[in-house]
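Appendix B, Record 12. Input sequence as logged:
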Amino acid sequence: MYEALRQAFPETNFIEAADLFYRVRAIKEPQEVEMIRRAAAALCKGIEAAVKAVRPGVSELEILAEAEYAMLKAGSNGLPFCPQVVSGERTILTHPCASNKKIQPGKVVVIHLGATYEGYCAKMCRTVAVGNISHAQEEVYNLLLKAQSEAIAALRPGVQAWEVDAAAREVIKTAGYEKYYLDVIGYGVGLRQSEFYPIIGKGRTEVIEVGMVIDLLLPTIYRRDIGGPRITDVIYIGKNGNEILTSYPRELIKV
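Logged structural output:
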């Protein structure tokens, strides 16, 4: 596409316009928020179905199949990204997808799904402990949950993106895990599952505004022996406070 445009319009420069569009789309109209809210409602049904399907001997793909079916029945128009139902050592991968791997007892299962409604996206990640997992992994999940809660509390109009990141990062740093942690913890959400304005991360200067919809918290602790657990939610910044659109219990799920 770029080569065709360059040949048809031989100007000396082409200017990247994606950032401009992301900035315009960052502030959602009320009807857009309602579409994301509906996608989130279908998504919650998918997470619920996935959790019910988790048990030893079932494959990651079988769990995903139950989740996707439930979301479609609940009104989702389809998946906005390659969904992630991963277990055991595969949870430490940055962008894993569901596989034929069987669920094993004593392991963590990470369920990261998305749903759409009329083109708008919602996404959510939850962690399931199958039987008794290690104390260290349970501590990591609770640490991430605390970091996410601090970030959500800091997510308010007028603050810069780095301040939201710093609220979560301080929790991770205090626990001694900052070097195993990513520099970006969230993005805008709308017509895409990850829109590049605002980006919530270290050193980011975007200003949070009323009407934005943002997902928090993306990373795990990338340390092979204890990492893997994750949590992600979509949050709407309203005039009178934040609303977590993905309204599903956030505690570690045990089956």
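The CA atoms of residues 84 and 95 lie 8 Å apart.
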